[in-house]
Amino acid sequence: MSIQELEDFFKSRELPAEISTHPAIKIVDVPKFIETQLIQIRTHGVKTPAYDRLVELKEWFLRKENGGEMVSDS
After folding, report:
1. Residue 45: what are its φ and ψ, rounded to 5°?
2. Entry's InterPro entries (predicted)?
3. Is 72 helix (H, G, I), strand (E, B) or coil?
4. How many Cα atoms are found within 13 Å in the side-chain-facing hemisphere of 17?
5. Residue pair 19/26 in contact by the 8 Å Cβ criterion
6. Could you give the CA distance from residue 62 to residue 56 in angstroms, rounded to a whole number?
7. Residues 29-56 pLDDT 10s
8. What pTM, to 2 d.p., does this model score?
9. What is the pLDDT of residues 1-28, one digit of tens each?
């Protein structure tokens, strides 16, 4: 998945202020989180933890949109 695809995905969503994607993971400023992760990816490329975090967040959004079902974006 390209950086542009990730950007487009998140731009097309209404972002909540905060979310809990896992019992141990809470994002308290979702828009700022996405912005900072994209900056890291644009600067360092997709082989960074920031890329993995955004892909996981995208998968979380897709699961929520599909009623909790696991989905593949392939």
Report:
1. 90, 180
2. DUF6965
3. coil
4. 0
5. yes
6. 10
7. 999 999 999 999 999 999 999 999 999 9
8. 0.84
9. 899 999 999 999 999 999 998 899 999 9
55, 59, 65, 68 alpha-carbon torsion, rounded to 10°: -160
**60, two tokens:** 């979380």
Q: What's the distance, CA 36 to chain centroid?
A: 11
Say which residues have a Cβ less than 8 Å from residue 20's Cβ, sequence separation at least 6: 26, 27
Output the DSSP codes for 13-30.
Answer: SPPPS-EEEETTEEES-H
Domain range summary for the chain, segments of one domain joined by +? 3-65
Q: Which stretches does DSSP call E strand in the chain? A: 19-22, 25-27
50: its two tokens: 């920031």
| pLDDT at 74 (0 to 100) | 45
Name the residue among 65, 69, 56 with its Cα closest to residue 13.
65
